[in-house]
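Issue 218. Parser rejects a valid record. Input:
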Amino acid sequence: MSTSDPDDTGLRKFLADPAHLTLDLRTATARCAKALGLRHAVVHLVDLQQRHLVPQTAVAPTLPVDGSLAGWAYRTQSLRVEESATGGGITAWFPLLDGAERLGVLAVHETALTASSLTRGRALASLLAMVITSKRAYEDSFVRRTRTERMQLPAEMLRALLPPRTIGNGDVVSTAVLEPAYEIGGDAFDHALTETTLHVAVLDAMGHDLASGLTTTVSLAACRNARRTGADLPALVRSVDEALSSWLPDKFCTAVVAQLDLATGVLRWANCGHPAPILIRGQRLIIDAMERDADPPMGVPALLSTHGRRTHEISLEPGDRVLMYTDGVVEARTREAKLLGLERFADYVIRATAGGELAPESLRRLIHSILAMQEGRLRDDATLLMFEWRPPS
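Output the parser choked on:
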């Protein structure tokens, strides 16, 4: 915004006032919109399963992600404009993004849209995305508005440890989904970025109770602890083995843990008793590209194998997508009560990613397709994590 814009003074005063730091989201939205000279604005946050856009005010209605212009803005991460439903004026829908993470949408209602009001709307969306990200970790109002069911205790424990659903930078984007959203027990995912590397992991602990959730929690914490101290891939997996052997000696956890070099596209991974990742290149499944003999699950290697942990390596091409998943995905059943299986699952993956959509949207559609076959309920936890290497040309 130009410093000569008359609304710039109001915005600077708003940001300089320490009182804005303690405002609730609805009040902060209203005051910041006023400071920017905007008529009215409403935040809609996406629910846990990415089906609904829930307004942060009782006046506005909840909107479907599929089948609304607001949902279109969310799905495509782009601006959409329509005539106001109440008659008179225009509504502009701005995506709310925390980096690559989709938080929801912002509705800005104006009598008429101009280049200036669109710029101010984008500025408001960027500012509110940062406010939401900073507050949702400790304000339960955010959690309540984005849940449609009661969260079970094992799921509550694991959800508190999960990273954002989507992360990314100019070289890569990684996105994940986890179902059943409110009843998970032993599944989890992790992803993180450094200046040079994408770190990803998908874990599946034995069982479907609080103990399995505890096993996954310990495994996830050990994985992060080793990663943050600079451990290479073999040392990282060894750290998880040692943590489980020391603290939960009768439990184990299958996993795929991987590291992608952002500059070269070299992907290194370790498979600990887990389904092999899938490589998608140019809307085609590259058969058996990452199929390797798996090592024993983490926590029990000494009992089942005489050799050390193995790491594998493959070179990705720009645009490649790698999909990691837990066995609950392929063990889902179709409407005819047949196992989905790897072949049908691969077909779902190809169809979900063939439309040229952004990776987070492809994964959202994929898990919803699998859930639709199960009439909304899976027999087992199902986790999907997909990352796309897209270096600048």
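Fixed in the parser; the record now loads. The CA atoms of residues 34 and 40 lie 8 Å apart.
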